[in-house]
Amino acid sequence: MPSSPYMSYFNGKRILITGASGYLATKLVSSLAGVPCAIIRLSRNKTLSPVKGKFTISNLNGDIRDSKVWKLAIDKKLDIIYHFSGQSSVYKAEEDPFADLENNVFPMLRMLESCRDLDCKPIIVFAGTETEVGMHETLPVNETFTDHPITLYDLHKLMAENYLKLFCRQGYINGVSLRLANVYGPGPKPKNSDRGVLNQMIRKALAGDPLTIYGTGKFTRDYIFIDDVIDAFLSVPMNSSQMNGRHFIIGSGVGNSVAQAINLVADRVREKKGASVLVKHVPAPSNLSPIESRNFIADCEEFKQVTGWKPKYSLEKGIDLTLEKYSSDVTE
Question: Quick check: 330 pLDDT over 60?
Answer without folding.
Answer: no
